[in-house]
Each structure stands twice: as structure tokens, then as C-alpha cells.
Amino acid sequence: MKNKAIFIDRDGTININTHYISDPEDFVMYEGVGKGVRILQDKGYLIIVVTNQSGIARGYFTEEDLKNVHQRMEDEFAEFGVRLDGIYYCPHHPEDRCQCRKPNTALFEEAIKGHDIDTSMSFMIGDKELDIVAGKKIGLKTILVPERHEREGLINNIKEWQYLPDYIADNFLDAIEWIIINEQ
User: Is 11 a catalytic residue?
Assistant: First the structure.
């Protein structure tokens, strides 16, 4: 039997998006994320983080800096008893037109193959259109959790999106409740 998974964007979804985080001290997890991910992990979901990190290509930080930020994220999740099953990131500049940068799906494909994931039983949680597009392209149910300061703008323009989210959550825990109600 294949695994079910939750794919989660990092900046703006798991943590406050302060743009190009290079210092682990700048990583601040949103309230409710640790608790919510623990609920999903306890329900048997693999937890996969998929994130664009063009700050590497732009020279804002190194892969070692990113590794340190991800260690901080893993440490914070561990405080809730959560172990991430994978962290996949794209280090490329948007102009590189790589296949791993969301909304492209190479990182998702790698995780799906490596963890034997059934996309029909899996979800994508993100704060931007590109998260929804990537999730839809790969066959996931998608949940948009807009950052508070971007919510109105995203909602007002959503009818113009190529793919619509399956649900727009008020916050991360609202997204978790929706997943539990809609899981197969």
C-alpha cells in the first residue's frame, strides 16, 4: 500500500516570510503549525516540505546557511514530537527555468517516487498561487493559507488563477481540520 503525504511550503506557510532567511534565528514558526503537523503525522501522513530557495542563486545565502535554517525548523518541529520525512528545495533563480522550482513539479516527483506516495490521498498546503499550481499539476488536493497581509489581494485575484485551491483556510489549523474532514 502506498503512503499518504502532506506537502507543505515553507516561507509564508510554516514560518513568517521575512524574505531570504539566512540566519536560523530569523526562522519563526507560525502558531499552530507544530500542533497541526503533529495531528497529521499521528494520522499516518508523511510530512514533506517543498520550498523555493532562490536566495542561494542570488548569492544572499549559501546551501550551508539553508541547512542551518532547516535544522532550526526541524528542531522546532521536534518540540511537538514531529519528524519531517523530507525537505526538498530548489536553489535556482527563477530565470534559470529549472524543472524543480514551483510551480514546476520535479521536487514533488522526486518525493513521490522516493517515498512511494499516493497523490490521490495526499495534500499540498501553501500560501501562494505557485504552491496551488504545483499541487494541482501533480494530482494533490490543495489548500491555500494566505499570509494575513496578502489575504485580501490573493482572494480578490483568485478567479484569474489557472488552478483554484480546493480550500482557502483562515489559518494553518483550519487547513488541518479541512484535511481531516476530506481525507479518504
Answer: yes
Q: How many Å apart are CA 111 and CA 24, to the nearest integer? A: 25
- Which one from 11, 65, 131, 166 is the annotated catalytic residue? 11
CATH number for domain 5-182, candidates 3.30.70.20, 2.60.120.380, 3.40.50.1000, 3.40.640.10: 3.40.50.1000
Q: How far apart are CA 170 and CA 149, in angstroms?
A: 12
| From 9, 65, 127, 166, the catalytic residue | 9
pTM higher than 0.85 for the full model? yes
Q: Three cell numbers at 28? A: 519563526
The confidence band for 184, taking pLDDT boundaries of 50, 70 and 90, is: low
Cα radius of gyration rounded to whole Å, the chain: 15
